[in-house]
Amino acid sequence: MTDVLRRGRASLAFSFLVQGVAFALLVTRIPGIQDRYGVSDGMLPVFLAAVPILAGIGSVSTERLVRRVSPSRVLRWSQPVVLLALLAVGAGRQTAVLALALAAFGLAVGALDASMNMLGVSLQRAYGRSIMLSLHAAYSLGGIVGASLAWVGAHYGLALWVSYLPVVLVLLPAALVGSRWYVDGEAQAPVEKGTGAGQGGGLKWLLPLCLVMTVAYIGDSTVSNWSAKYLQDVLGSSEQMATVPYNVYMVTTLLGRTVGDVGVRRFGAVAVVRAGALVAAAGFAVVAVAPGAWVGMLGFTLLGLGLCVLVPQTFAAAGRRADETGRPGASDAAVARLNVFNYVGFLVGSPLVGALGDAWSYRGAMLVPMVLVLVTLVHARSFAPGADRYGGGHERPRTADVGRSSNGL
């Protein structure tokens, strides 16, 4: 059974990595996509907003779908759709093709994100200790790889399909082979009466975690969409130097998630989330008052180290608290609904900072996500329902929680 769990963890981590590569290849080549299809500056935000909106629909649909089929099956077939949709984006010519490809990409990404995190939560339950941060570290690594490949394609003026085709040819069969070892949850943990914070009341207990997820992605989208402009226009850096902050952010996110599980096991999820929120707030403060580009990059470095723990731990907390309800399927439903607020934060963050920057100042705009991320401190106790089984607690994992391989389902 240990071998089953190890193979399940490795295969799921690879899926996180593949998703990071695919998403980075899409978002970092947006100027090239715009040029290929002749999309106007006015229409571009419509196309970009459609992806997270459809992803939210895909995530909600996955909540219903997993009542009939296992999350491993949803992930097994949604990941190829994402990769093929990416290739279609690079190979098409007409705007209608772009619209259909992005629609397929968005819906499949929603199903993929939800099912990946469902499997991550159930696998962590089987392990009996924190592993979610390491899984999301694989996503960060994939993002770095994808962004690097996109840079190569842009640098050498390669057509989009030339950049995308080799990636799809390598990753698609590898993902299908790896999907044989996904691990689905076998059974929910027994519930101790009086300890389930999520008992009763539907999923109202999920609302604080939804807020934290939204805030985390407002911060993340602020970095991904505004770091280069901020460094160049506000802090006076060169165009080349302005590309550095996002790369630094991704690297520090990877490093923070790689070691973060150790911190959760030793100090508990609540302490790690509080520390992450404080570090992230400090990062925004440094960015807002930075006198020059190098100090600004220090702020973006702190943001990577702080924000990186929030999303994985929010998914993990949702799974733990859902288990306490004692209702079959509660964990999967909670993860699917929580995942929607990933896209809400992404949709809100970039326009919010842009509007505040134009109406007020970009330095002042950076203080808004700083204040929002501090809201996490108010809801930090939501990360420690009942016994903190997966991080910092003393309760031993239950053998009933051990999963089974999806191979042969």
TrEMBL record:
Keyword Oxidoreductase: no
Primary localization: membrane
Domain of life: Bacteria
Subcellular location(s) of the protein: Cell membrane
Keywords: Membrane, Transmembrane, Transmembrane helix
Bias kind Basic and acidic residues: ranges: 391-401
Domain Major facilitator superfamily (MFS) profile intervals: 206-409
Name by which UniProt lists this protein: MFS transporter
